[in-house]
Amino acid sequence: MNDIRPIRAKSGTNHEGTSAHNRRVMIDALRINGALSRADLARATRLTKQTVSNIIEELERDGLVSSQEAVRRGRGQPSTPYGLVPEGAFAIGLQIDRHVTRAVAVDLVGSVLVRDEAGLPPGGPSNGTKVILDLVAGVRSKLAGIVQQSEKRLVGLGAAMPGPFGVAGSGDDPWMMEAWQKFPLLETLTAGTGLDVGLQNDAAAAATAERMVGAAHGLDHAVCLFVGYGIGAGLILNGELYRGTNGNAGEIGMALLFADGKSTPLEHRASLASLYQHLSIDPADPGLYARINDLALRGDQSIHAWVEAAAVDLRWSIHLLETLFDPQTVILCGSAPEALVNRLIAAIGPLLPSIAQHRGRTLPRLQPGMADPWSVALGAAAGPISRAFDPRFAAILKDSLQS
Amino acid sequence: MNDIRPIRAKSGTNHEGTSAHNRRVMIDALRINGALSRADLARATRLTKQTVSNIIEELERDGLVSSQEAVRRGRGQPSTPYGLVPEGAFAIGLQIDRHVTRAVAVDLVGSVLVRDEAGLPPGGPSNGTKVILDLVAGVRSKLAGIVQQSEKRLVGLGAAMPGPFGVAGSGDDPWMMEAWQKFPLLETLTAGTGLDVGLQNDAAAAATAERMVGAAHGLDHAVCLFVGYGIGAGLILNGELYRGTNGNAGEIGMALLFADGKSTPLEHRASLASLYQHLSIDPADPGLYARINDLALRGDQSIHAWVEAAAVDLRWSIHLLETLFDPQTVILCGSAPEALVNRLIAAIGPLLPSIAQHRGRTLPRLQPGMADPWSVALGAAAGPISRAFDPRFAAILKDSLQS
DNA sequence: AGTAATAAGTCAAGACACTTGACTTAATGA
DNA sequence: TCATTAAGTCAAGTGTCTTGACTTATTACT
Description:
The structure is a homodimer of 403-residue chains. Chain A is of the alpha/beta class and 403 residues long. The first copy, chain A, is 39% helix and 19% strand. In chain A, the strands form four sheets. Chain A has a five-stranded mixed beta sheet with strand order 5-4-3-6-7, sandwiched between helices. Chain A has a five-stranded mixed beta sheet with strand order 10-9-8-13-14, with helices on both faces. Chains A, B: Belongs to the ROK (NagC/XylR) family.
């Protein structure tokens, strides 16, 4: 009769949770709307003027917001807008890709202050860990050289790498990503940097970036279709990144397509990997990015065939994402040369019919996102910033309150 | 300069929000774990014993929980477990299907107390509204005859019908569902019943039912693949039903499949509609359910061919849902005869490889859910109960606190 | 048996964060 | 000039959780 079953329950909350939530709501409002007065904030958040005043005062003491020039708007006392202070917080973003690793330092509003990259030697984590830790340390010290107190204001390190995580893989990846995926990266990075470390896949990172400073800014439901070496979808649902049970939600590249009696993962058909194979070029070529961009700009015939084929699969992928997630918009982004992404977008249209053809639609069904080799690292850095400052259910719960 | 841009912000919260959240967390814990003592609840929710005592006292006054026989568990004062009181709250669930409408009255723990159905005359809402309102009124008065104070404890009316909502349709549906989808159903039901009314699609309702009393009980990430006249997926993400921008998330039946050079919606290939067509029978036949069940039990050859074909599409659908949502489990349910669902499940296996083949997996990748013509109505009723009593982010916000 | 240990649950005071309503400040418009 | 309007502050009030001591009830040990 002595049942020792664990009791499962969500955590309760208390005053601290309330306060933490309200602080986050203020920051979020300032991020979405730009500078706002206390009175504006009170109306928008449904809190009282007094409460807003107290919280703003606290945020100002913490260096997260600052007052601006008073604004006269008709009768009444002029309002004093408060805006986010970019240097109020920083985060380091780290991208681990097949043959390269990139790190950036980003501030509270998502500006990249420092960026650096390094080649990853073959051999997986055993050879790459030192390179990565050195890269992070370098970015961190450069940041310290640019701004005061950066270390105190560093909220964490976000890492991004291709998924999926924790899955028994196919073993056909020459880039040892599987070894990386199995490696205790979080623990290694935490031990090596002393920072709070988070990990997400590259598509999720791209979506996080789009939400902070890109096309998904202020949206609560958006899907980012990320075309990189692989292909994946980053999901913004209810205003938050959706991770799924194991952080693998959105791994559309693993979706099997059936054609001509055989099944192929989408990843093998529409991704830069397939392009490299199509063009018979070495993905480790350092001048690759410029070369592809050049080919895309020139409208090269060899690229054209791949674009047309990939566009068919992407068009269908977008249709499927619209059908399953019912987002406000789909964003096409990638760690691909911008010219190539533009060609893809042009080739994808017109979109397939879907539930996205909705009466109340205001946003385009498909929008271009960032096409920048640094966008994944930026999104990786945006992760810790979002965790620290965006309103989230988890942030009100007692078991998340440590500070 | 007089910019009248609307300021967008999430709502703040206050003590009431805190309290409302904690009440919901208690109810949720009792629902998941069964009866618990105050001390157990305090540990599980991370609240203090005193706080739990106060909230339990309040919930007991409200008739939502009641104490049970004291339990001796080793040293120390025996604990007094508290459990949910089924008749603490009720909701009416309404299913509007092509040729039939069903209504149920459900209690706090998801037991169906009253059920009734009626045929829907052709002609869409103009002819059907009266039938529906009469059906609801009948169920409501029968409930009042069974339990005391049912009207006071009625938290709302949940309606479910096939989606998608608000989409420019294809117009090829003989059952006038498009007319229903365009009809101001919420307003009509609110005016006709005086209740708080919610609306979701049938797959979402099935998922809500599975979460309250079925295979998704206590799970935070589950996908219900619902096979009915159409086919759809109900999504439980982060412990809540995910609706998408327009309540159309999960409408996998609208997904276009490409084969033999033409595109077909999944719905036309794997759904009861396709079965009826395959068997050349009239979907309005009142003895349909028994007839199909009988055919499935006998292992009829005509059904066998459809099952084999549908299983291919369902196998792929499950693979896709696993890939995109990374759920803890996929549940196959339907408003289809149980024997048919069992045949389908048997025919679907083995599943396609996917990211669901994860190291830490404990639940089966695919589980059977309810296969019951009443499950959609039950899920419809579970909607208002979940909105009223489950922990949700929205419930802590000031703009959701009215009571 | 008697007593120490253990755990549930209560009591009463305290702390925290939001709310209330009156008040001050500073601008515009008639 | 002065009523009106709106931003923002002040100080007391309120609701909800927390704290720490205390009571109650049972088992385990001597």
